[in-house]
Amino acid sequence: MNIVFIEYPKCSTCKKAKAFLENRNIKFEDRNIVENNPNAKELEEWIRVSNIPINKFFNTSGILYRQMELSKKLANLSDSEKIKILSSNGMLVKRPLLILENKVLIGFKEKEWENEI
Predict the structure, then answer these.
(1) How far is CA 116 from the centre of its chain?
(2) Taking a C-beta distance cutoff of 8 angstroms, is the pair 95, 8 a contact?
(3) DSSP secondary-structure letter at 10?
(4) pTM value?
């Protein structure tokens, strides 16, 4: 199984998630979300596969999210506009992301990851 782990290395939750994978000897491709931000095509696919509402992909606790006042704007944007925003800067995307063959996990919830991997 090809697993992609998308993280921001300074994020404490990402560090916990990475340790979770490494402690279980799970092989994965490590991707820094700032250096290699998901593009619109990837985001569209992950949102479709995940069956999770697009707004859940936003890092709502991030500084950039607050600076851009996205909480006030998202309700009036189309999905394609939201994807364009998400693909513009990795700091806007909730992380870590774990991309499995036919599943996408957002954020790190240990029980969920144990059940899905």
Answers:
(1) 16
(2) yes
(3) T
(4) 0.91
What are the residues whose beta carbons fall under 8 Å from the beta carbon of 88, sequence distance 6 or more?
37
Range of the domain at 43: 4-116
Give the pair of three-digit tokens for residue 1.
């199984």
> Got the DSSP string for 83-107?
HHHHTT-GGGB-S-EEE-SS-EEES
Query: What tokens were used for 103?
Result: 């599943």
Mean pLDDT (whole number) for 78-82: 96
Q: Count structural domains, the chain.
A: 1
Q: With 0-12 CB in 10 A as exposed, 13-18 as middle and 19+ as buried, what is 52?
A: middle
- Phi and psi at residue 29, to the nearest 5°: -90, 125
CATH of the domain at 40: 3.40.30.10
**Whether pLDDT at 52 is above 80:** yes
